[in-house]
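Protein modeling request. Please complete all fields; requests missing the sequence field cannot be processed.
Requester role: graduate student
Desired output: 3D structure, token encoding
Chains: 1
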Amino acid sequence: MDIETLLDPLSRALSQSQALLSLAEVGDWDSFETLVQQRQQGLLSINDAEYLQSLAQADLEAQAAHMIEEIQAINKRLSELAEISRDKVASDLRQSTKAMKAIDAYGR
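Delivered output (108 residues):
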């Protein structure tokens, strides 16, 4: 197996992580959900012992580790953006509830 083929699952996961970050930054959470599920499937193959052994035999641990660190950094940013979005949605919901109470009170 050549180097590119061995690193392909990590490259794909990194590329998908970058795409997820772009989606999160614009708030496209529907597309985000679809892509995150695809990425999760790919990440399962990376956790395979044979795959990890192949990386070690090809002396690709450093490159793999660097890619994994990039994915982890993106994941951290994704968590931050998700938390910000969650807080905004909660705030919007509270405002909507207040508005509905005001409408109900006015209608009486």
